[in-house]
Amino acid sequence: MSVPTRRRRWFTLCALTASAALVAIPPSVASGRSVSPFGVRVTGQLAKEREQSVGAMSPHVAANDGDNGNEADEIAEGADQYAEARTSPGVVAPGAYGAAWHDLTNLRSTGGNWRNITDLPYNSDDPRYRDIDSNSSGGGGNVTGRMAAIAADDDGYVYAGSAGGGVWRSRSGGGHWQPISDRLPAQSTGALALDGAGRLWLGTGEATTNADAYLGSGVYVLTHPHHGTFSARSRVGGDELESTTIHELRFAGDTVWAATSKGVWSHSTRELSGPWKLEYAPNPDFLPGGSKADDPSAPYKNIANDIAIDPKDPSKVVLAVGWRSGDDYNGFYTKVNGAWTRITSGLGDLPADAADVGNVTFASSADGSRYYAIDQSPEQLNTNPDSGLEGIYVSTSGSPTGPWTKIADYKGLAADNSALTTAGYMPGVQAWYNQFLAVDPSDPKHLYAGLEEVYETKDGGSTWSTVGPYWNFTFPCWSIDPAKQTGDCNPTTHSDQHGVAIGRYHGKSFVYVGNDGGVYKRPVNGAQDASGHATDWTSLNDGTIDTLQYYSVGIGKDLDHGGLSVTGGLQDNGQSILRGDDKVMGSNFGGDGGDTLTDPANGCDIAQEYVYLAVQVTQNCAVNDGSWITDASKATSYSVAPPDNATSEARFIAPLAADMKDGNTWVAGGRHIWVQTHGYAIRSGKEWTSVHDFGAGRVATAVAASGGKIYAAWCGPCNNQGFARGIAVGNADGTGWHDISLPVDGTVPNRYLSGFAVDPNNADHVFLAVNGFSRHWTEGPGAGVGHVFESTDGGTTWKDVSANLPDVPTNSALVTADGGLAVATDLGVVYRAPGRTTWQRIGSLPAVAVLQLKASPDGGTLYAATHGRGIYTVKVCDLR
Predict the structure, then answer these.
(1) Where does 593-664 show beta strands of DSSP type E?
(2) What is the structure's pLDDT at 297?
């Protein structure tokens, strides 16, 4: 968040007959059509949303935002909502995921083996899919899931740490990747660093505080990273850093320092078995075991972002401490007379005031002559619609105590041929989420900086180039020509930068960047065009590295190419589509991909959800050569969002489902339950009908329908400030709607209700998946116990059927064609065979979240959408 159990192979032939079985905004999200290129519409929409929300708390944010509504952008809102599902109604105690992983790996295993079907290149610029809702031709090329950290050496070895899919190694300067952390109980990366002895240090727990960042299980060391793999036995220290996020690991002498969500810690690099030492926590009462550990704000009270160590005097250490949205403890700290003390003056341009110190990243030159820093300002975040960036700074003394001089701000970066020049969405608008710094080892004035884009200066900050623009849509060189990747523009990187490293391969230096689209590289002293854009970026996402973060999966017959068409919605990588004869996946919808509906009888009939119920539909797989740019009638995808999208009265990733008995009847959940009966022929959001209103402040968390009967779960408030949940049942024609009695002290826990699985043979027989952790780990009213519940009377009464199921967040469930029950959890998939009451673990997936399960059209294959390792399949008949 153990070592995989060896599986028994089943050499049997499956014969199963078909049976019933269970940040960029696409332009069509806005009302009306436009022939403007995708990117222009995106920045305009984001800018409008941010400008409207800065300085005020919208009803939607007020109802759902776990940190007082200060986050105006959608990534921050998604962060709160993703966490709410796993933590409400209270605070989860440390060690919950570790205990769950231990119990899960000790379950008896089913037969069958998972097969990864997305381990091939995913081309975000695939020329087949240049419809109005696609990002294709933006210039990002081959992509994979978000990379949080990068490390590289001078022997051609590159290490990429993903947000949810573990750490990967390349022996060839990038590409031909191998996973090296699959045996760990946490696959979320916070930091990667090589020490002076060549050892690779891994800090687990991603620290971007975004929509799907998972806590970690501590720090691990790989002594021989060229040929070894991480194991649980390689953990440094004890359990002090379990259930934390780790932003940076820094070295000084024989000490490693860790900036974490629980303060700053240190450890010997020689003796790895002793406990970690807590160096500084600004609010220790909020740490685990403290008197305020159960306070809802505890996770935000001891956040450390980075550590700067004076290369000339390692005893001089500066800590960057603070919550991105602002807190009284935010600031820079150093030791004075043996005590950590806030620096209140003498920093020069670098702010000392708490309101202007948020997320901070440091970098030192190899010769010790310069220190650099990026600072994100909580004040800017909360009041400036254009950017949250306070600035980029340099200390020419080489000391982190300064004095510091500002060498860049968001206006200057925007003027350097950035793609982000729209008021309301400019460089650093997500500086709390996007940051990196790296200094060329051979030139202390040569600096790479990452925000949403990649910037480079070769003169210490006097001039800058946007070498990796957000995309190419806004530049004169761009065209949608399907014969070209991105018109006459050069390839760029994916947006939203997180990790960086400089290494050598075959004697040449390269800079490696990790972002929401994976890993890219270019020569350290690479080429630029007249606009300062790099001409030599190479995507290293060659298909051997699959860290794609799926929210959903859809499967349908491929009538044109044979076999099946498989689609899925992804974090910041749109929707992928894999046709029956594809060697490369394409992207037919852009932005963040949420839920997905695919017609089992025709895999080119697709509905893809963006966030907040922004739904697009196509009936030709969104195949388009871009001719809609000059003739709007040639667009082949349509915006069909239910009205709750316009008011943002829906979850960030909102539920969407088709009736199991009638694929033309769709159900969507926001504040209302919406129904439309035109299937994939729908062309307008006006075709939805509200059949039920949960009421103000409540939003749907799960929906399911069979034969016209609808089950809908809701929450509101959805955070731990008065968390409430419930279930309503009714009919698609609007009749018979009623609330199910679910008292806080009843059988069903007072936790987030995440999914329904309806028996295909009896609509009154339904299973309920419950997220979060049971009361052993959750401090909150009515947290209860159990994760899977069964009703045989249409939801009126429920029975806990969790049995030996580990206490782990449960995301969805599915009744298989043979009457078994499969359940997706944050740590893999479990299965209850027909007629059985106990659970088994399916396959040997690493500790990765599985968010959705779907069955193939014939019911014979189970598809699992993992949030960090792509899409996997297993034969149902092998689950014995």
Answers:
(1) 596-599, 602-609, 615-618, 637-639, 656-658
(2) 86
